[in-house]
Amino acid sequence: xxxxxxxxxxxxxxxxxxxxxxxxxxxxxxxxxxxxxxxxxxxxxxxxxxxxxxxxxxxxxxxxxxxxxxxxxxxxxxxxxxxxxxxxxxxxxxxxxxxxxxxxxxxxxxxxxxxxxxxxxxxxxxxxxxxxxxxxxxxxxxxxxxxxxxxxxxxxxx
Length: 158
Prior knowledge:
mainly beta; 4-stranded antiparallel sheet; 3-stranded antiparallel sheet
């Protein structure tokens, strides 16, 4: 039998290694550490008339989603419910998210909420958000060429 020198620090783990191990093995990973996804993934496309937003909401019922528009800010909030735990069952893996969620997005133009449309199909929420009339670009035409100043006419671009 060989004699081995005793090293008191061999079995001691640094605090950083212990914290990394704890976070990697935990059931709930923090969003900021390790590439967690946004609570509501969005695709936003701008068109001539406004914006089209696609939000992925798998497993969420349309009745559990609330959409609000305030000026140029869109907010999607809701709640996804967890499966009920039954006696005699043991979970081996539980990665699907549940609970309340909220996502706010500032668009670069005010939205006409009265003309907005929402459609929910196969877990994808599609919002069609037209720009407000006052946010649409206007063209100003110059009046006649006389020496008298004339009022400029404003026309809406379509």
